[in-house]
């Protein structure tokens, strides 16, 4: 299909990126300063791209809805970042990281992109350390590693349970340095509401100043969307409250294809919902599965407290079903297994929609180790527990504290209750090898694109991908597009395309303000979330998805008839901000269901209940579905699907087993 | 729980603000403080009124977006806790809760409880970084760093930039914020080259932006949701003095 050229370079897999970098056209430094790049979103991908491009000499403008780039939701990533350093001497390599990522993604990602990701992973760690990111270290002063799901090596670098924070602060400091040097201008409390295209190319954006309500036109030679994922379609997710899909969705409606919208990651270890008031869900890092053991009672509807259930009556179901990987199976597998136990009546806690994550064994193991170290050979059981708790605190203290603050329970004493929750979206704007969407000049980086994680992302790979795209990929690939434009002046923002796009957005805002119905934005958002969670969540089937499609359409009609947005449009109006975002979620939700409906197989995070093995494992259909679905917007809630066939030259495609 | 809320309402930076009293009922102890606000705002929207503007985003205590002075304390009564992680089980039925925005000259009110903290952005841009362009780094393990130094640096770097230290300080000083960033780099070998300039430039910017001076009352440390130690301020003073002597 001519429309979908992934532009994967020729040559052997190991040489593709090296060869590409050697041949991509360059832009002379004196020309770079005349080229303007607009970046939307300032998380790991956006901040790292902005800093790196400004260092090269481009003029950069960055837009984000918070009051600081340091608040982007990358900040909340807990566990770590993968790299193929092999510092642990446990047999890791670029190939293994590449292989684990492809396999973890259930053979639905591009080989070329993923290999590049694995190649640059090591540069990321080097770069971050050079910036002063305080990673965890061993007593010898060298970097410490731990394990994450879906791998059998220790390749995850971390900074306590706050790795995302430290990496983002590193990228943010690099960004602020460029701000101080006058190379980057940041637009805080600004939300991009549309892309401006001229002759089919992205030439600027319309943004709303969230403080004054004023619409602004900004032109540039290229536009980078680094706006994260769309997990908030589900209302309840581990995303921040403000995370939204408006930028990618508006880009989609202007011609950017949407890749694999149905691939959603449900994270297995989140704090369970406590009531209808719940506004968001909180993740308990995957790193906890290094030492915590997941279990439920062997007896259905067991009402005993967790600590009252004897060892022999506990079902460590992940260790039972997947002896090779145990508690460290990938997220999709762990989530489905938890749902299976709860649906079968083995759930724990008052809601029965939870399983235990227990540190008793770890506390005992660490305690004994520590007693041995201290020469306390006859340490009492209580002393061992005391020492063990200290070690657990050192490793996971902030997570345990967070758990206690939210639930009021002390996880050092009673097992944590956890349940899966929406966490990440593997789908996103379709991009080629250069990270360009199907709109020339419009790029998507980080979670906003679809490219590297296939149908399931491995833990500690999101930070890696966001920073790979921003620090090490886009600075090279964008040159190829900008090189022919060096003599093009910045487009004046009174060009008719800017005027018209601004008017469309202005009309949209007026329309939302003038419905003057009776229901709040949250009312509609919660209902959409429930439809999506029930019918396009952890388990999906044809009947449910078909129902969801009509329910979403009905809900959308109701939204446009009965929404109430109080206040004024030319004002700091939080309800209006939410209304614009939810209007887009109400369309994107439909596309997610359409995509889930057409993919008649189970793969990664997409589990179609009709397609499973006799043991309840996901059943792929490689003969018919080994493709990326790339959806084209055809106007008026109509979409056409294009296919990008996936070819595996290096890796032997096989059933994904963690047993 | 039933509660009486006295909440600061102010249309914008140019208008005069005032407290408005609201009654909320049937508040669950499981709710977070901000979820209680969500309930109130939902009611206001349903009544056709303008909901209360407040800053928030991640709701897991790490982004630093949420703020609020609750009963006279930055981020409320619970130590080491951001407002978004504060739960209603820490309040009593029938209680009156007073909620105000951060009060500091350098943080002007935007609306209701939302203030403009971009002054922190400027301080950061003045020197809160190591000048290393992408692509220049050597292998990460070529630079061993004693674990204790790395840990101390990490604790300083865990500042979330929420501004509680400024709001809690009677002088509206930003010393804890600035000292945390200066300390993070002063403790690491990567930060040595620009060590003196960093301290001088960040302090200069802080002063220019209208933050007050530090008089060592320690309220910043007491109210910091991430429990950043006031030791960092001592270190900043040392760094600043040394830098002045060098220059």
Please, could you describe this protein's structure?
The complex is a heterodimer of chains A (659) and B (247). Chain A is α+β, with helices and mostly antiparallel strands. Among the domains of chain A are: 269-421, Alpha-Beta Complex (Flavocytochrome C3, Chain A, domain 1); 494-624, Fumarate reductase/succinate dehydrogenase flavoprotein-like, C-terminal domain (Methane Monooxygenase Hydroxylase, Chain G, domain 1, Up-down Bundle). Chain A has 17 helices and 20 strands. Chain A has helices at residues 16-23, 29-32, 44-56, 94-104, 111-131, 163-180, 246-253, 317-321, 331-343, 360-374, 381-407, 462-482, 496-514, 521-535, 542-562, 574-598, 622-625, and strands at residues 36-40, 59-63, 81-82, 145-146, 156-157, 184-187, 190-198, 201-209, 215-219, 222-225, 258-259, 264-270, 293-297, 314-315, 355-358, 416-425, 428-429, 442-444, 627-633, 639-645. In chain A, the strands form 5 sheets. Chain A has a 5-stranded parallel beta sheet with strand order 6-2-1-10-18, with helices on both faces. In chain A, strands 12-16-15-13-14 form a 5-stranded antiparallel beta sheet. In chain A, strand 8 and strand 9 (215-219) form a beta hairpin. Chain A is globular. Chain B has 247 residues and is of the alpha+beta class. Chain B has 2 domains: 3-111, Beta-grasp domain (Ubiquitin-like (UB roll), Roll); 118-246, Fumarate Reductase Iron-sulfur Protein, Chain B, domain 2 (Orthogonal Bundle). Chain B is 35% helix and 11% strand. Chain B contains 8 helices and 7 strands, in the order ββαβββββααααααα. In chain B, strands 2-1-5-3-4 form a 5-stranded mixed beta sheet. Chain B has a two-stranded antiparallel ribbon with strand order 6-7. In chain B, helix 3 packs antiparallel against helix 5, helix 5 (175-186) packs antiparallel against helix 6 and helix 5 crosses helix 8. Chain B is elongated and about 60 Å long. The model of chain B has no long low-confidence stretch (mean pLDDT 97). Chains A and B meet through helix 3, helix 5, helix 6, helix 11 and helix 12 of A and helix 1, helix 2 and helix 3 of B.
